[in-house]
Amino acid sequence: MRPAQTPPHLLTLILATGLSVLSLNMFLPSLARIAGDLQADYGLVNLSIAGYLAVSAVLQIVMGPLSDRFGRRPVLLIGMAIFALASVGCALAENIWVFLGFRMLQGAVVAGQVLSRAVIRDLYPPNEAASQLGYVSMAMALAPMLGPMLGGALDMAFGWRSAFVLYVLMGAVLFAVLWLDLGETNRSKSANFGQQMRDYPHLFRSRRFWGYSLCAAFSVGGFFSFITGAPLVAAAWFDLSPAMLGLGIGIITGGFMVGNFVTGRIAPHTKLVTMVIAGRVSASVGPLAGLALFLAGQGNLWVFFGAAIFVGFGNGLTLANANAGVMSVRPQLAGSASGLSGAMTVALGAVLTSATGAVVSAQNAPFAVLGMMLGTGVLGLASALYVRWVDLRDPLPDAG
């Protein structure tokens, strides 16, 4: 097969992003069966999620700079090859430690998410990049909804290993697609790591970079708080069945898709920070209204999940634009910026997941969850307003 020489189609980047999300959640319905089959404690098997997230956070920090130095194409191809081979190891594992070892290696697929963003920033100016990222991010909304459903069906029909066999096939097919379609887009590679290290202080000292990064991290953090606390709210307050809970959780994802669609349509003509602020206002107003209604004794199922729609929609307006802003601070370090911001998002998401689990109880569930969502919404809004303040004091014409 002749390697690609031209920029990739948007569909290729959507597939790479989607697989990186599917790798996290498709096998979740099989955790109990994996524990039983490999004769392992359920808590140990859960390391396949927590450990995977930790490894992917570290890999994002590493892969971004590597792609700035050597190019997006080789790093993406190597990451996809490692993922496919690691999936073979998971499918064949006969004990929990072998399974967990290969599961950690599967984290290499995060290159699809991190570097797809960098590729888009290589190809487009900031506002157009935000528009394209909005469409790509819609894959991140579909994958969490469809992944567990597909994984559960495969488990019932063929056993838990079938999900990892499918990972092997998807990884191999996507490797071929990337080989044929992903031409190198990084036209300003660092001559060496020394030069790259000399450029890093400009990125790390940028107030815009930290403002946009924190905004993105708090946006995703609100989603993590919701999906962590919603099951307890559903069970303790509304007696929802698992199927209805799944539908309720899908509501926030639906709002996210709509927000990304709006971003794709209007981002080319709107300032990045304006879109981000609008998103953070939506993500704050929804939980604020929901919490007020619950405190007034008017809370119900529709109020709780309705507040989540505002958060999902706000995240759809926020993330693509914030990510475009992150990578526009120092375009020649777009991969590094994407990786570092992504690692921050994963780390804060893990912290907020743990915090939500510790705070939420059967007695306070809707109040605590809405309060956590409101807190992340307000902190994200403060980060966005900080970027706006920086823009007014120190305009940056090419930042959108």
3D structure, described in words:
This protein is mostly helical. The protein folds into two domains: 10-189, Growth Hormone, Chain: A; 201-394, MFS general substrate transporter like domains (Growth Hormone, Chain: A), CATH 1.20.1250. It is built from 16 helices and no strands. α5 (72-92) runs antiparallel to α6 and α8 (126-158) crosses α14. The model has no long low-confidence stretch (mean pLDDT 86).
Question: Can you give the helix content as a percent range?
Answer: over 70%
End-to-end separation in angstroms reads: 39 Å
> What's the total number of strands?
0
Q: Which word captures the global form?
A: globular
Number of helices: 16
Looking at CATH, the homologous superfamily of the largest domain is MFS general substrate transporter like domains
Order of helices and strands: HHHHHHHHHHHHHHHH
The figure for the number of domains is: 2
User: What is the CATH level 1 assignment of the largest domain?
Assistant: Mainly Alpha
- What CATH architecture of the largest domain do you see? Up-down Bundle
| Secondary structural class | mainly alpha
| Rg over CA atoms | 21 Å
Task: Name the assembly state.
Answer: single chain
For this structure, the CATH topology of the largest domain is Growth Hormone, Chain: A
User: Mean of the pLDDT scores?
Assistant: 86
Q: Kindly estimate the percentage of residues that lie in beta strands according to DSSP.
A: under 5%
Query: How would you sum up the major sheet?
Result: none
Poorly predicted parts: none
